[in-house]
């Protein structure tokens, strides 16, 4: 009987230690994702940036991608990715106008939330 209780105790200890290790790994992965560390690691090693995407159907998309300073228009389907053309770099006024619109929209949404419902 003493032998069986020692075996059970050993199995319990090993199972408990394994559970603690698995929970530690899961919590570290959750924390890294929550803090944004996983996204930064991928972004720093890549010279490809998706600027925008437009859905044409259920599985077809137009995607503007910046690769090594060049902007490309790509057609993406389930079977292939095709380069449709090269785009010029956006001018500073276009970028500034987009950010101004974004700021204006945020301000309007905050103001609407602050106003009481009628």
Overall residue-averaged pLDDT value: 81
The helix fraction, in percent, is 55-70%
- Give the CA-based shape: elongated
Strand order of the largest sheet: 1-2-3-4
As residue ranges, the low-confidence spans are: none
DSSP E strands, number: 4
Radius of gyration over all CA atoms, rounded: 26 Å
Structural features, described:
- InterPro entries: Flagellar_biosynth_FliO, FliO/MopB.
- Keywords: Bacterial flagellum, Cell membrane, Cell projection, Cilium, Flagellum, Membrane, Transmembrane, Transmembrane helix.
- This is Flagellar protein.
- The chain crosses the membrane at residues 6-32.
- With 118 residues, the protein is an alpha+beta fold.
- The chain folds into 2 domains: 1-46; 47-113, no CATH class.
- The protein is built from 3 helices and 4 strands, in the order ααββββα.
- It has a 4-stranded antiparallel sheet, with no helix packed on it.
- A hairpin with a 4-residue loop joins β3 and β4 (81-87).
- The termini are far apart.
- The mean pLDDT is 81.
Provide a quick synopsis of the model:
This protein has 118 residues and is α+β, with helices and mostly antiparallel strands. The chain has three helices and four strands.
What labels describe this entry?
single chain, 118 residues, alpha+beta, 3 helices, 55% helix, elongated
